[in-house]
Amino acid sequence: MNWLRKLVAAVAACVLLGIVPSFADQKDPRLDEYFARLYKSANEAEIATLEQLIWRTWAETGDATIDRLFREGVEAIQTFDFSKALYIFTGITGRLPDFAEGWNKRATLYFMMEEYGKSLADVDVTLKLEPRHFGALAGLGHIRLRLGDLEDSVKAYEYALKVNPHMPVVRLQLEQVKQVLSRRRA
Hints:
Elements: H1 2-17, H2 30-40, H3 44-59, H4 64-78, H5 82-95, H6 100-112, H7 116-129, H8 134-146, H9 150-163, H10 168-185
Helix pairs in contact: 2-3, 4-5, 5-6, 6-7, 6-8, 7-8, 8-9, 9-10
């Protein structure tokens, strides 16, 4: 546990001192280590820290203006200002088409707006850019479930859990969908 405190302190010090690579997002080389440790970890505190580091890394572009807009877009989603969020994330994906998290946030927004076809299209781009995006994979499972495609929902949830086995809500959703499929086949 002491090493975890040291890791968190080191990361915080690097951020405070500005010792952070100018690149980030899904291409950041730190992600490989985070994912390797996340997959193997059984420590809840470490898992939470690693998931946070992954999400934070995905959300960084190295462009202060885009990062500010990204935060504003997230806030717009949280306050249900969907038109503002859509405007922001469409602008971000237009300016940075290789930024997976911009696509993922817009996919989330489209899901909330019940625009499932558009959400699926953005999830597809997200996963092409970052195949390990466990949030997008879980989202894909949710979309497929809403569309009544239970088999593909199961596949998406299973793949999400292969990437990140520490998602109890996804695991529960997977088991529920499997039970429905089992009853249908019986």
